[in-house]
Design a protein that fits this description.
There is one protein chain. This protein is of the alpha+beta class. The relative contact order is 0.20. The N and C termini lie far apart (about 25 Å). Strands 1-4-2-3-5 form a 5-stranded mixed beta sheet. The mean pLDDT is about 95. This is Methylphosphotriester-DNA--protein-cysteine methyltransferase. Keywords: Methyltransferase, Transferase.
Length: about 80
């Protein structure tokens, strides 16, 4: 997990281009999603974190975004209800 505030704009673009970063997340809400998600683009920089893959986000106890990752969100929601 990488904090957005710890990256320069150039470094961030480089990591996205090289696919070192594939998902973004909100550290306060513990939600992760696609970098293209309009909800993610609106969040404050100090709340934004980045992940290399979904596995990393899930290991950090983040849940999928209900807007950009509808299928993963439905699976997550169903698993929470069945507990």
């Amino acid at each position: 997990m990488i904090q957005h505030s710890q990256l320069s704009s150039e470094n961030l673009r480089s990591k996205i281009h090289s696919r070192d970063i594939c998902f973004g997340g909100n550290k306060k809400l513990k939600i992760y999603g696609l970098l293209s998600c309009r909800s993610g683009k609106r969040m404050k920089m100090e709340n934004r974190v980045f992940f290399a893959d979904e596995k990393e986000a899930l290991q950090n106890n983040y849940r999928p975004c209900g807007h950009c990752m509808k299928e993963a969100y439905k699976k997550w929601k169903k698993s929470i209800v069945n507990k």
